[in-house]
Amino acid sequence: MSTAAPPQVGEAAGRKGQRKRGGPTQTTDRTKAERKLALMLCGPAVIAMLLVTVYPILYAVVLSVQTVDLRFPEERGFVGLDNYAAVLSSPLWWQDLFNTTFVTVISVAIELILGMALALVMHRALFGRGLIRTSVLIPYGIVTVVAAFAWFFAFDPSSGFVNNLPFIPEDKAWFGNRWDAFTVIILTEVWKTTPFMALLLLAGLATIDEGLYEAAKVDGANAVQRFFKITLPLLKPALLVALLFRTLDAFRVFDSIFIMTRGSQDTESVSILGYNQLISRLNLGLGSAVSVLIFLLVLVIAFVFVRGLGTAVPSQGDKK
Amino acid sequence: MRRGMAIAIALAALAFGLVACGDDDESAGGAATLNWFIFNEPSGGPQKVAQRCSEQSNGAYTINFEYLPSQADAQREQLVRRLGAEDSSLDLLGLDVVWTGEFANAGWLAPIPASTEQAVTENVFEPVLDTARFEDELVVVPIWSNTQLLWYRKDRVPRAPETWDEMIDIGERLGPDTGRIQIQGNRYEGLVVWANALIESAGTSILSAPKEILLEEPPTEEALGIMGRLSNSPVAPPGITTSNEDSARLGFEAGNSTFQINYPFVYPSAKENAPDVFKQMAAARYPAVDPDKPSKPPIGGINIGVSSFSDHKEEAFEAIECLVKPENQLEIAELGGLPPVRSDLYDRPEIEKVYPGFAELIRESIQNAGPRPSQSPAYQDLSLAIQRALHPTTKIDPQSPEETYEGLRDNVEKAIKREGLL
Hints:
The structure holds two protein chains of two kinds.
Chain A: H1 5-21, H2 29-64, E1 66-67, E2 77-78, H3 82-88, H4 91-124, H5 129-141, H6 144-155, H7 178-206, H8 210-218, H9 223-251, H10 255-260, H11 270-280, H12 284-308, H13 315-319
Antiparallel strand pairs in A: 1-2
Helix pairs in contact in A: 1-12, 2-12, 3-12, 4-7, 4-9, 5-7, 6-7, 7-9, 9-12, 11-12
Chain B: H1 2-21, E1 32-39, H2 45-56, E2 61-68, H3 72-84, E3 92-96, H4 100-105, H5 114-121, H6 126-130, E4 133-134, E5 137-138, E6 141-147, E7 149-153, H7 164-174, E8 180-182, H8 189-201, E9 207-209, E10 212-213, H9 217-231, H10 245-254, E11 257-262, H11 266-273, H12 275-279, E12 281-284, E13 299-306, H13 313-323, H14 326-336, H15 349-354, H16 359-367, H17 379-390, H18 402-417
Parallel strand pairs in B: 1-2, 1-3, 8-11
Antiparallel strand pairs in B: 3-13, 4-5, 6-13, 7-11, 7-12, 9-10
Helix pairs in contact in B: 2-14, 8-9, 8-17, 17-18
């Protein structure tokens, strides 16, 4: 599903771009040739994407309107929207949706602040830029499951070092109640994906003209004013793209929760709910309904970002 | 020029992807290759036995191991994915005792020929056979069993307690520094193992038939009361709501526990990791709920099934007959400490060596075991429903577990009907 969202963004942005550009612009032979080359380069990727994403998504939609349970092969049949009704009328779905939203909002907010700080520091680094950027990326390069295990073992009362730290009771069971468990889950998410946020923001910072800061300084703007009047407004496109990617990603949170609590203590996310129906119960109809609903929510998030907040990748290009 | 290269690279990448998908199915001439999908049992016992069977088959078959992950859930996940896609590369399936109903109802298990059934059920414990039957037919073949015992410190208590209440009383008298009781309370299958054993020991069952709930109220509440009492006791393990077999083992080896409910693997483990604890370690039968009713201990283990999509069913059943032969069960027990499924083997001196002083106890425990309701094809629904109703066990009020009982009953009823989300 992660692969399905970005093209959506690109498409919408592309359409917008065309509309703006439209008019009497002459297309030269050179641009034509370049477009053709671009199409040929994209072709294989687009075909591969269609094969590996569109087919499974359509198949999930088809399954979601049927009774399909691998354990009861004789019961197959069309049930319309019954599976969706079962999901939406279940308190479990709403509970898990709240949990997912909670983890998403809190972790993305923290990531944004930390990521911004890191990006500013990296942008202004005087020496060792390459080294700093590479080392910041390390957590992002670690497989999520491995990171989740590392954090799990660190906080686990029998194997972890965290309970030996000062001010923390020695037998504190971090995964024994909801909010402590959420704390560790969110910390893991933040630790793992802040670098991604920082790098996207850093790329945004690099596009801001240094001359603007010089001019502002001459006019007597202090550092805080420069940040809010220059950096933030000009960073907005990059910032929204970073937020969009991270929100879409965080909304599908699975690994950390699965490793740490398996969804117990009311920490279950919608992805784990889907997993339980699909893999544990082999109830493909019900599970597909959950998956399709998650997919729709992801689309809604993308839509809100693109249309509502005006996230658009090529707007930087338009300005140039 | 450059364009040509880009296309060539793209095509090469695609072709590579396609080739990588199609490298299966290498048909060996002569001997049929039987792929046995099972977790990698660390002792190597099954591998040794399988190799011997392959050699003895006179070229009829060769058993090849395809390893599944070590955790039961992950094993099942891989098996059901392949079987759901009707993968013919699976021949022998190493199945947990609770998967029988669902695999059989899904049509993934080949029927067992009468001649094989005769050979593989002789002298096998009745509760073990219960885990291998679906709708009164044998659908899988037990190869090894497992059961939980009460492990205790003989330097702290003169004799093992007979009931849960007695055990908690003793523990609380010793206090949390020495008297802790190690158990499995995380939201996973181990919690169902605990709950089911208590409910069975209290004198009732979760189901009376694959689609019929039993759960008589007074005994079930007695069982739930014990879960609540232990979970809220000062001698419960600190992370009881996240504890599993391994945390229980480690907790006991740390020395501040007097009791542990666990499988026999903890015995060799303590010998290796905590020799001082090991010297004082003794085993007794799973505690009872009611002093007048003998306990019904949990039962685990592995059954072997033949995939209905296998191209070599005949050879596969031949192989199974060989794998579960008495001497092979003995060898698996000797190497890995896995309890045989034939009761007559417990008279053999080899078994006494594997379980010094408690071989008879294991036999008694398996013989009287109360299996989980694995005859239900919706067992996973039941398991999830029970876990959701009982976790965290610290929320069960030991004085009045009625509320938990109602929740459990509702959930089990929904699970039987397979209604709604779980």
